[in-house]
Amino acid sequence: MFHLEELKEFLRGLDLQTGFFTFRQIKAATNNFDAANKMGEGGFGSVYKGVLLDGTIIAVKQLLLNLCCIEGKQLLLVCEYMENNSLAHSLFGEGGLILDWKTRQRVCIGIAKGLAFLYEESTQKIVHIDIKATNILLDGNLNPKISDFGLAKLNEEENTYISTRVAGTM
Asked: In the chain, what are the domain boundaries?
């Protein structure tokens, strides 16, 4: 798992499209983290749907503070909203979306390309560790996006990452 300082250093090394939001903007976008806007909950916190003043739809993960060693502050991750939820919703019929075999193949190839990028092409080599259908999000065009890097490890060139311990969601 990343520690907060490692996470900050890692994020600095990526070429990300980032923006800054005030806590007030995020509270307004999520209607003060209203339960009606709650999209899900994972091991690291709850995820809420929000709408910014310009109409941009976002997903906000409200991270649990006891996992981040921070007192008196909110730790929020604001992400692009994925209109088609997770691959699990599509595969298991929860979202009403049915993927034909050609689309499934395209999604699988997209996931493989994403993992290859993380492990081989990114400036910071990353081993995800927790790839599963609930951690693959689908955008409006059914393009897959790898999510939930809570268990990810940085790959050190001289050390191949091998783990035999069970981790993640059962």
From this structure: 1-81, 82-156
d(CA 38, CA 51): 13
Our answer to whether residue 130 is catalytic in this structure is: yes
Annotated active-site residue in 15, 34, 130, 148 = 130
pTM: 0.70
> Per-residue pLDDT tens for 135-162?
899 999 999 998 876 666 777 665 555 5
The domain made up of 1-81 has a fold known as Phosphorylase Kinase; domain 1 (3.30.200)
